[in-house]
Design a protein that fits this description.
Elements lengths: L1 E4 L17 E10 L3 E3 H12 L6 H6 L5 E3 L4 H4 L7 H27 L5 E7 L9 H8 L7 E5 L6 H15 L4 E9 L10 H9 L2 E9 L8 E9 L7 E5 L4 E5 L3 H17 L11 E4 L4 H11 L3 H14 L6 H13 L6 E8 L3 E8 L1
Parallel strand pairs: 5-6, 5-7, 12-13
Antiparallel strand pairs: 1-2, 2-8, 2-9, 3-4, 7-8, 9-14, 10-11, 13-14
């Protein structure tokens, strides 16, 4: 497993008149399976034969923006003898979600030492199902309160981390004296299925496994990044463009090549509606987390918003090193911004992700 720790910035100077946010980020941890799968090796040793009837398969893998992925199931070995049925896939999902989340939950609790104050736990995963859900098992393992309020969010896809955060924000608004755990874990690698099309080549070239967890508290004006607000839009006329269903043999994802074009048409007014209530415009935002649904999404969003290569670098780096890890991805990007860009106090970031619906989610952060 890998584990990274966010470096929290200092508070704004005394006398600052900046508005209070909906929540403060107290800690953030990420984790991924130990197995690292190089993209070219995986294609040469496995996917080339699988997609031998898809002439553009190698071009798809080379153009994915992915150089390696962390995968619980290395396709070169896990699928060497065929495609397992649903039962072992779900067992692997549960095992790996819990393994990653032990690292992330344990990390934020070690940082805070305030577990008796955690009143809410919100957790998302769209790559599997089991009951009791992972949040229950993790709460038991870490000795969280018996009256802990829990919410498990499933099947919402790449934008689910924003729904996790919003549920935690609401809990903190209602009970500002408590803390909230909010995060996700995804095991995409257990869903390779026998469908040999260009669309499925794209899916198999992009997705990896990861988890992330945040510890949040009400904004008290003290140190730490603050979430100022969120904005959501759903464009139901494009519901056909992205889907996630359970088939007899595995879960099945569809991903239209037109998704980047749909997003490009909507992204400017979408971001403006996030920023306007805070008196900000695109040019006021120094840091950007764009969910890398694929390299074209990063390209199109960057072009429409006139973002610089440095501003897009965290999204491209996460895509290159992890792939698209569904709901966990945007928290991997936030972690990278905190550790590597090291925003100065008072700087802002916009985080955004896109999922079935098409649903567009965003959050505004002040460091």
């Amino acid at each position: 497993m890998t584990d990274s720790r966010a470096t929290l910035t200092e508070a704004p100077a005394a006398g600052s008149t900046t508005a209070r946010g909906v929540a403060k980020l107290l800690a953030l941890r990420t984790a991924a399976p130990d197995t690292v799968v190089p993209q070219q090796s995986a294609f040469d040793e496995y996917y080339r034969a699988v997609f031998q009837d898809v002439p553009q398969a190698e071009e798809i893998f080379r153009g994915s923006g992915v150089s390696r992925r962390h995968m619980a199931w290395d396709p070169r070995t896990a699928y060497a003898d065929g495609f397992p049925p649903i039962k072992p896939r779900m067992a692997a999902w549960e095992e790996n979600v819990l393994a990653m989340s032990r690292r992330t939950v344990g990390g934020v609790l070690d940082a805070a030492e305030l577990r008796e104050h955690i009143g809410t736990f919100v957790f998302a995963s769209c790559t599997g199902y089991a009951g009791p859900t992972p949040d229950i098992l993790l709460a038991k393992e870490f000795g969280l309160r018996q009256d802990l309020r829990r919410t498990f969010i499933g099947h919402m896809g790449c934008n689910a981390a924003f729904n996790v955060l919003k549920a935690a924000f609401d809990a903190l608004a209602a009970r500002p004296g408590e803390l909230a755990l909010a995060g996700s874990a995804e095991v995409c690698s257990v869903h390779l299925r026998p469908e040999y099309t260009a669309e499925q080549a794209v899916v198999n070239a992009l997705f990896g496994d990861a988890g992330a967890m945040t510890l949040l508290g009400a904004d008290d004006g003290g140190p730490g990044p603050v979430f100022l607000g969120t904005h959501t839009e759903t464009h139901p006329e494009t519901t056909h463009a992205m889907s996630w269903h359970i088939e007899d043999d595995a879960f099945r994802m569809t991903l239209s090549p037109y998704v980047p074009f749909y997003l490009a048409e909507s992204i400017e007014p979408f971001v403006k509606r996030l920023l306007a209530p805070h008196g900000l415009d695109v040019g006021d935002i120094g840091h950007w987390g764009v969910h890398p649904g694929g390299p074209k999404i990063i390209d199109f969003v960057g072009e429409k918003l006139d973002l610089t290569p440095d501003q897009l670098a965290p999204s491209r780096a996460v895509l290159a090193e992890h792939g698209n890890c569904s709901s966990a991805t945007i928290l991997l990007i936030l972690d990278r911004i905190l550790r590597e860009a090291r925003p100065a106090p008072g700087e802002h970031a916009v985080l955004m992700a896109f999922g079935p619906g098409l649903t567009m989610e965003s959050a505004l952060v002040r460091f």
